[in-house]
């Protein structure tokens, strides 16, 4: 943001950010998870603190150190993340869902470690749907004018899939990243386009995750009542 680095345009605002990736346990030692590092969500938290916001960071299984000045709530599963985000969102001006939330969780949790048996094929793992936190937030809006932002990683037809997802979720902004084998996951930089429910399209060049984060905050600030 260069010459605008002094802006404290989020002063007096409460923002909630989810980061990392949920883990859905099968038994006490195993889980279904994903490769999200939490870097983008943590960059959003750092930049929001720098811009003067009160920040609640709901962090799912990230190994990153707590960002200075943010309230960090640690969660494991999608159900726990939902509870923490909805609670913090009650008085939030903006909610940014940067976490990779598992779409499904194992239908059963084994309280003891699952063991293999000689000569027996493994049993299939039955899954059930997790709640869609972003869709619920977008429909709920506990605070009038609250701005809700989602993230989507797409491999094909990035813009078309992003537009359809934005409409389906009902959020105000959707940050769409193109991902492939070596793109984005765990990397320091990313390339993205931010789609607005108002039809706007803001491309963000390949660069540090802080730059994308600051663009997201610019777009959020311009939508705050
Ligand atoms: N998300 C969520 N709750 C879920 C799944 C996703 O809140 N159960 C949020 C993510 O945090 C992200 C956005 O929704 O901000 C988009 O996630 P994505 O996985 O791309 O969307 P899905 O609707 O799950 O679509 P897909 O079938 O492509 O995975
Ligand atoms: Ca998903």
UniProtKB/TrEMBL annotation:
Encoding gene per record: coaBC
Top-level lineage group: Bacteria
TM helices/strands, residue ranges: none
Protein name per the record: Coenzyme A biosynthesis bifunctional protein CoaBC
Catalytic reaction(s) noted: N-[(R)-4-phosphopantothenoyl]-L-cysteine + H(+) = (R)-4'-phosphopantetheine + CO2; (R)-4'-phosphopantothenate + L-cysteine + CTP = N-[(R)-4-phosphopantothenoyl]-L-cysteine + CMP + diphosphate + H(+)
Keyword Metal-binding: yes
Record key words, sorted: Decarboxylase, Flavoprotein, FMN, Ligase, Lyase, Magnesium, Metal-binding, Multifunctional enzyme
Pathway assignment: Cofactor biosynthesis; coenzyme A biosynthesis; CoA from (R)-pantothenate: step 2/5; Cofactor biosynthesis; coenzyme A biosynthesis; CoA from (R)-pantothenate: step 3/5
Annotated spans, Phosphopantothenate--cysteine ligase: 15-225
Binding site for CTP: 103, 113, 131-134, 151, 165, 169
Function: Catalyzes two sequential steps in the biosynthesis of coenzyme A. In the first step cysteine is conjugated to 4'-phosphopantothenate to form 4-phosphopantothenoylcysteine. In the second step the latter compound is decarboxylated to form 4'-phosphopantotheine.
Biological classification of the source: Bacteria, Bacillati, Actinomycetota, Actinomycetes, Kitasatosporales
Residues of the full protein shown: 178 to 402 of 402
Family, per entry: In the N-terminal section; belongs to the HFCD (homo-oligomeric flavin containing Cys decarboxylase) superfamily.
Span of domain DNA/pantothenate metabolism flavoprotein C-terminal: 10-221
Cofactor (UniProt): FMN; Mg(2+)
Cofactor note: Binds 1 FMN per subunit.
GO terms, molecular function: phosphopantothenate--cysteine ligase activity; phosphopantothenoylcysteine decarboxylase activity
Record EC number: 4.1.1.36, 6.3.2.5
């Amino acid at each position: 943001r260069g010459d605008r680095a002094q802006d404290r345009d989020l002063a007096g605002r409460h923002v909630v950010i989810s980061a990392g990736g949920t883990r859905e346990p099968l038994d006490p030692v195993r889980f279904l998870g994903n490769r999200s590092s939490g870097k983008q969500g943590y960059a959003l938290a750092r930049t929001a603190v720098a811009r003067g916001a009160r920040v609640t960071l709901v962090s799912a299984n990230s190994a990153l150190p707590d960002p200075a000045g943010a309230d960090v709530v640690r969660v494991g599963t999608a159900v726990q993340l939902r509870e923490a985000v909805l609670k913090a969102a009650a008085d939030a001006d903006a909610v940014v869902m940067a976490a990779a939330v598992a779409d499904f969780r194992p239908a059963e949790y084994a309280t003891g470690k699952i063991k293999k048996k000689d000569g027996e094929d493994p049993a299939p793992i039955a899954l059930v749907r997790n709640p869609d936190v972003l869709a619920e937030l977008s429909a709920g809006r506990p605070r009038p004018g609250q701005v809700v932002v989602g993230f989507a990683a797409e491999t094909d037809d990035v813009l078309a899939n992003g537009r359809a997802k934005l409409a389906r979720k009902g959020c105000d902004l959707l940050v769409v990243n193109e991902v492939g084998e070596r793109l984005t996951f765990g990397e320091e930089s990313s390339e993205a386009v931010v789609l607005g429910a108002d039809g706007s399209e803001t491309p963000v060049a390949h660069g540090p995750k802080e730059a994308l984060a600051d663009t997201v905050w610019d777009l959020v600030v311009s939508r705050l009542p």
